[in-house]
Input
Amino acid sequence: MDQNEETKFIQNQKERSYKLCIVGDNSGTSPILIYDELLQSIQMCQAFLFTQIKSKKIHGKIILTTTGNSTITNIDKVCFNL
Output
């Protein structure tokens, strides 16, 4: 996982934040926007299982985003079926 600086913004009079990260597996890489409390779940050079994420088209590109229902779980072992 590669990541940029955290960006803070106000939405509905509530302070929120996100980071644009790059995630990848054996099929390729994708940008992902990770929001709010989920930012504490991510670290560089770790393996994660993402659930309840969605895709958005932003400036003509598909980007993954977390939602209010998303979870990020650190996993110890990664197995790829080649």
In short: The longest strand covers residues 14-25. The chain is about 0% helix and 55% strand. The domain at 2-75 is CATH 2.40.50.140 (OB fold (Dihydrolipoamide Acetyltransferase, E2P)).
